[in-house]
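I would like you to sit down with the pair of lines that follows and say whether tokens and residues agree.
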Amino acid sequence: MKQKWLKNEKGVALVVALVILLVLTLIGFSSINTTTFEANISGNERVGIDAFYASEAGGQRGLDQLPGLSAISRTKLGEDSYYWSGGPENKGSAASLQSYGMHRKPGYEVEWVFKRYKVNMTGESFAATKETETQVSYGPFRAGTDY
């Protein structure tokens, strides 16, 4: 025997449809938030990579000028990309291109020496900065020369 309140079931389909619509709406909002968050992460990653490549370009310039140790001032690379020698606070310091003197390498006779250098560069792109450090051995030179 049916209860009296179960006899009139005309509004049940509407209630079920509204509940399903609510669930689908929540899934939609969640998807939009996730997509926006992922797009922001992707944009930040791209800016960081641009800053890294700007720093690498400056490092190549620093290596090209060796054995000279003159500072590289802030240099425009692209639309909003720059590089310079040193950290973000000193935008072109000579201490960021350093010589560590002569050293020998295995496999070379004693009259041959190499000079060791360190090049620190900073790249910037859209206010993101990346720093790189490169250490290089330059030579061989005859021992006792002033290279």
Q: What stands out?
A: The mean pLDDT is 88. The chain has one domain: 10-142.
